[in-house]
Every structure is written in C-alpha cells, then in structure tokens.
Amino acid sequence: MILNKHPFTESLIPLLPQFEQQTGISTTNLILPEAEYFQKILVDLSTGAGEYDVFMTGPYAHWAYDKAGWTQPLEDYLQDPKMTASDYDAADLFPPLVDANRWDLTLGGGVGKGHQWAIPVMVETYVQVYRKDIYDAAGLKPATTIEEWRDNNKKATSGDVKGIIVRGSRGGGMTGTGFISAFRGYGGRVFDDNLVCTVNSPEGVHIAEQYCASVKESGPEGWTNVTWYEGQEGYASGQYAQYFDCDFFTALYEDPTKSKVVGKNGVALPPHATDKQPFSSVWTWALGMSARAADKNAAWYFIQWATAKQQMLKATLDGQNYNPTRKSVFDNADVQKQMKSWGNGTYLPAVLDNLGKYASPGWPPEPEQTFVGTRWDQALQEIWSGTDAKEALDSAKDDIDAHMKDVGLLK
Predict the structure, then answer these.
(1) Rounded distance between C-alpha atoms, residue 411 and residue 91, angstroms
(2) Is 125-280+362-406 in the same CATH topology as 2-122+284-351?
(3) What are the helix and strand counts (H, E) for the chain?
(4) What average pLDDT does the segment 143-166 reach?
(5) Mean of the pLDDT values across residues 398-407?
(6) What pairing do the DSSP bridges indicate for beta strands 282-289 and 118-131?
(7) DSSP assignment, residue 107?
(8) Cα 141–Cα 231–Cα 134 angle in degrees, nearest 5
(9) Domain ranges of the chain
(10) Which CATH code for domain 125-280+362-406?
C-alpha cells in the first residue's frame, strides 16, 4: 500500500495486525506527506511500475487515473458474494460519497454513473464554523446568503478579533472548499456542458466580489499566504470569529489541549441564494486498486476489510478518523457521545444535513482540476488586491479555456 500521511492512515496502521491475522495476507506500506505522496503514486501508476496494489485517492485525483486506465473498477468485487462478505452492507456507506467515486469517464459529467473506482474511507464537507459567543453578544445569526455572511464578518470584527479567516494561498484549495460551496449554492458552474469555463458568470462575479471584499474588510492582512493550517490554527487561537472551511476541523476547536475556543463554537451550512438549497462541495479520501495490482483478490480483501463497519468504527472512536463514511458509524451511541457537544450541539446536524442532502463534488470531472483551481485562486487574489472582479475572472476564464484547448479537452 501507499498511503498519505493523514489521520485516517494513523487510525488504520494499528489495525493492520488484525487484518493479517484474520486473512493470512501480509501487508507493507509506504506513508508520505501529501505533496510527495501524490507525486509518488502518479509515477507508479503512469509508468506501469505496479509497485503498489492499494492506494489512497479521492475523486478529483483519481479522475485522471481512471481516464488513463490506471485504476481497477471495483463493482464486480462488490457484487460478488464469493468476494464480499454478506455483512459488508455497501448501502450503509453514504450514497453521495460512493457516487463521488463512481464515474462513467464522461468529461464534464457522469459522476455517480459507470464504474466504482474507489471506496470512501473518510469525508470532509464545508461549513461555517463561527464563534457563537461573539455572534450571540452582537445579536447575529449564522448567514444564509453571501451578503449576510459579509455583514456578519464585519460586525463580528472587534478589538483583537477579526471576523473571518479563509484559505488564501494559491493551489491550496482556496477556491475548492468553502468558496466553491457558496459559488455552487448560487447556481455557479465551473464549466458548461462543453467544458467551456464559466467562472466569470454573473453568479461567479457576484460571489467573488462579496467574498473578497469581506476578507479585505474583516480578514487577515496577509490573506494570500493563508493555508488550511494557518486558518485552523488562527481560529482555534481565538483570533477570528469564523472559519468557513472543513467540517471536522471542529474536533480540534473542541479539544482543550489545542484550542482556546472550546465550547464557544457553532456550525452552520454554507451561504446560498435564497431561491436555492445550500450546497457543500465534498472531498473523500478513498481506497483504490491499481490496475496492475499483483494480486487483485488480496487487494480487494484489504479494501473491503478497511472500509467495513467494525474497522471504521474502531478508526473513528480510537483513531479520530473524522468523518467516517458509514451511516451506522455516525449512528453508533459512542460516536454520538463523542461528537454531540461539538459546536454546542450544531456539528452533527450540520454535517449529517450535508451528507444526506447537500454534499456532492463541486468540480466537474476532468483531469486538469489542479490548473483550473490554481488559476481561479489567482483571480481571487487579484480581486482582493483591487482588480475589478469581472476583469479578473474574464482573464482567468480566457487562460483556462486556452489551457483546455492546449491539452486537447476543448475544441
């Protein structure tokens, strides 16, 4: 196996002796930091080296692998009673997360159809995590629109506390987490059906204007250098009244050994247009199989075991694998007890609303997502620095379209 250095990995490693004892299959693993990890697995898959049988992946990553024929479809294993235990209960996995890792290879569409390329093991959706004590004192309610979001951030700014922190570094998920959730919640689309970029749509311009203006008014001075980690640490230290980002960061905010805001938090869904439902983009770490796996049956036994109810429950309770991808694990009384107080009781309802109703991949399937996201990030940085929003997004759209033509994805 090749695994990314991640809480899921840390929750999995102590359980491996149990797998080996139960199956007689030995395991070896390589664990790497994320940037190095993605480089290593790309080289292994693209060269056909076949050094790794099982690997961690997710929809935005494996779309490129799937299209190239590097990943092994898994639905035949799932549907074979000789290969999958009768109590595996695939229906217990949240359907949107299973669908996020299913794709029929249609560029720009087809998610949730076709082959099952990976099985989800953890998930993050995107929420507003805010200082409930500050909001209550100022008479504020969590925003439902982007205008209310901007207004809340301004009113929550006082003294040493600024109203908002969000990711601002280019290429670090800035447009792909909270921002894209609001963008999609206003009806925005990254591409049209022909893979023509539409980030400069009226919805895209409106969200970018409000978002960047709010960060300028109520956010950190060095916003363009803020990574997910600085955002998490800044909020946990009490310097900000909201961090619009990953849901399970709340576990750290409610940890008295790491946070100064324990018991002071609330969790709410992303802002959205009044005539539309909320939208949350979603990322799932998942386990996939190399098309060149030396023993595909053994690889499937491992993927099945690692994503089964018993292991996922242990990984969640003992290894902090937040968030699990099975409904039964969320419903477990011990897991409920562990999470029920987070966000003053608002964490579980918000996350389960996302998983049950509002979460799906914010990006359409195509192999150039890294380029597209980074160029969109650049446009937001330009808007924050004073460039007109439509001008910045028109330029980003032109560059993205030109790139898509260069790589043969756009005629």
Answers:
(1) 40
(2) yes
(3) 19, 9
(4) 98
(5) 98
(6) antiparallel
(7) T
(8) 30
(9) 2-122+284-351, 125-280+362-406
(10) 3.40.190.10
> Are β-strands 265-268 and 118-131 bridged in parallel, bridged antiparallel, or unpaired?
antiparallel
Mean pLDDT of the chain: 97
Band (pLDDT 50/70/90 cuts) for residue 82 is very high
d(CA 322, CA 331): 14
pLDDT in the model for residue 368:
92
Phi-psi region of 24 (alpha: psi -120 to 50; beta: other; left: phi over 0): left
CA distances 89 to 81, 219, 237, 371, 407, Å, are 12, 45, 41, 38, 41
The span from the CA of 359 to the CA of 279, in Å, is 6
Any idea of the CA torsion for 201, 166, 176, 322, to the nearest 10 degrees? -150
Could you say which architecture CATH assigns to the domain 2-122+284-351? 3-Layer(aba) Sandwich (3.40)
Averaged pLDDT, 56-77:
95
pLDDT band at residue 367, thresholds of 50, 70 and 90?
confident
Mean pLDDT, rounded, for 295-316: 97
Q: Where are the alpha helices (DSSP H) in 144-239?
A: 146-155, 180-185, 202-218, 228-236
Give the Cα separation of 99 and 119 in Å (integer): 10
Q: In this predicted structure, what is the pLDDT of residue 292?
A: 97
Q: What radius of gyration do the chain's Cα atoms show? A: 21
Give the model's pLDDT for residue 230: 97
The CA distances from residue 327 to 93, 236, 380, in Å, are: 6, 28, 36
> Distance between CA 136 and CA 181 in Å, rounded?
25
Average pLDDT of the segment spanning 109-119: 97
241: pLDDT strictly greater than 90: yes
